[in-house]
Amino acid sequence: MKGQEVKLKNAHCRLDKVEKDLEKQSKMRRDFAVGLAEAMTTIWS
């Protein structure tokens, strides 16, 4: 049973890491989109 627990724990840690990476990526995308929108507004105004 011990081996199962370790595997579960490792899988859980990996999931946490993936979630954090996704959050970071979506934040970067959002920042990029906002920057792009600001640049467009500056160009057109």
Provide the descriptors you would attach to this structure in a database record.
1 helix; mainly alpha; 45 residues
The tally of domains stands at 1
How many helix segments? 1
Structural class: mainly alpha
Shape, per Cα inertia axes: rod-shaped
Uncertain runs: none
What does the main sheet amount to?
A: none
Mean pLDDT: 93
User: Taking Cα atoms only, what radius of gyration do you get, to the nearest Å?
Assistant: 20 Å
Q: Span between N and C termini?
A: 66 Å
Record field, number of beta strands = 0
Portion of residues within helices: over 70%
Question: What's the short story on this structure?
Answer:
Keywords: Coiled coil. This protein has 45 residues and is an all-alpha fold.
